[in-house]
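Researcher: Last one for today. Full complex below.
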Amino acid sequence: MNHILIGGAWPYANGSLHIGHIAGLLPGDVLARYHRAVGDHVCFVSGSDCHGTPVAIRAKQEGRSPKKVSDFYHREFAECFKKLGFSYDVYTKTSSEEHKKFVREFHEKLYESDYVYEKEAPQAYCESCGTFLAGRFVLGKCPKCGTDIRGDQCDSCGAVLEPENLEEPVCAVCGKPVGFKNSKHLYIAVAKLHDQLKSLVDTHPEWRKNAIAFTNRYIDDGLRDRALTRDLEWGIRVPKSGYEQKTIYIWAENVLGYLSASKSAAEGTCFDELWGENARHYYVHGKDNIPFHTIILPSLLLAHSKNWHLPDRIISSEYLTLEGRKISTSQNYAIWVKDLTDQYEPDSIRYFFLANGPEKKDADFSWRAYVHSHNGELLGAYGNFVNRSLTFIAKYFDGIVPEGTDNPAASRQIDELFVTVGRQIESGAFKDALSGIFDFIRSANKFFDTEHPWITRTSDPSACGNTLYQCVQMIANLAVLLSPFLPFSSEKVRGWLNISNKWEKQSVSAGYALPEVEILFQRIDKNVIETETEKLKSILHQRQD
RNA sequence: GCCUCUGUAGCUCAGUUGGCAGAGCAAAUCCUUCAUACGGAUAAGGCCGUUGGUUCAAAUCCAACCAGAGGUACCA
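Model: Here's the assembly. Have a good evening.
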């Protein structure tokens, strides 16, 4: 039995989840379900990222506490994931006591390492907000070209800047001028870990291409040491004297959630195996998260001790666009997961984002494509094949699976699918996996047509029975092959046919009595395309006014 | 500015090491009626962004250019 850790990215708790999050995170659940079906010990963890400036700012704007705000979104996230069938072993939050305790202990030891040092540097400070500000919360003019800019980078002339070099710096939150104060912080010497980090990338050609490219870029450009602490109220207190007023920088604690959450999941029993040499670790997130998983997390682990298991597979997706445009939460141009799950079936949503996800390059969500994917592929090809076969048996064989012999060609294809689909899932090629399964479904429909059982039913009843027997075997195996992708419908079919979800060839005996079956997927009205597209257009319209 | 990615059929895209351009959808014609107006077959559709180069052979490798997207470490 292999120990598999799957870490899904921790969504940031300052706003609702949209389809982009789901597109990046769904692969984690496919991996988890697949590895469980194979018989591996799986620990699939994630949680809500609750600390940091944006949550604090949002709380201030809403007149609520940061805890209230982040708890609100945490509950919403958990509900969305549940509805979509995410099979997390633990879904927690960074503001949980278990996580905070784990992080404080981890950091205490970390500070003793040779890779952590103290440094004083000027920090932007807003008197009116009474807080220090991160670079991107300082607005000002570029000293070189005079353009209005945000943060420490000029978009128009490309100059890399420090906030203290900006002209007329103002606070992005309240608009008042900012000053600068010296502040002492702990830094992690990422640059000193250059060789280990370089060798980590070089020894993992199976990371997604974008992860390798990003990481190499950072390494080649020269790794920069990073502050581990922040002058912020809302966060985990720094466990060091002299640092009572400071908190731990979120990227120095949220990625440790993989450890703290897997510790609670394992309840101490197999935590060591899970983080030992022979485990396998997958990290599933969007490309924006790459450096934090390939540089920061390994740096923290390496600086802490020699024994932690480093990332094996980085499943970093590209971005999802919406009707050809960039999704924008601030401008409300998005489809929210909670709205989607209210109206559409979870398997339908899962199918679309897994079959059309941003695996190797940006992908687009359009209502036209979504409705087509559901009605045409999921329902028309798969649902219909299941339905036409099983209702045929119900109608003409009294619901009893007729006598028949295995179809050698189909049987061989199924054997191959278990191998290739498994390999594709493990390597992060979810689109290819689904497309292989759906090719088989198309061939199954073709088989049904060329056998025309509705004719042999009277002309050659035993041939008719044989055809349906073979169709039932195909359905049984499809249910298992699709179970990581479409858990809800697969569970239904497995229930009807009384088969397990083990990742191996299934068979249903002749004579088995089918229960009453129902339609697998509801058809989506085509008018949805127009009404939903109109809604998005009106959002764009408002934006321009 | 710099870096990365993308450009292939009307649309969405696949094309792993160079070897006769592929799939799905849409549109066309036909077959079918077991099934959720569902399924199947056939044909049609392409200057593979542009221009050069390497090669017996280039969508694929190299160079330049054009167009678009993304990134450029304390925004997740």
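The CA atoms of residues 479 and 490 of chain A lie 5 Å apart. Chain A has a mean pLDDT of 89.
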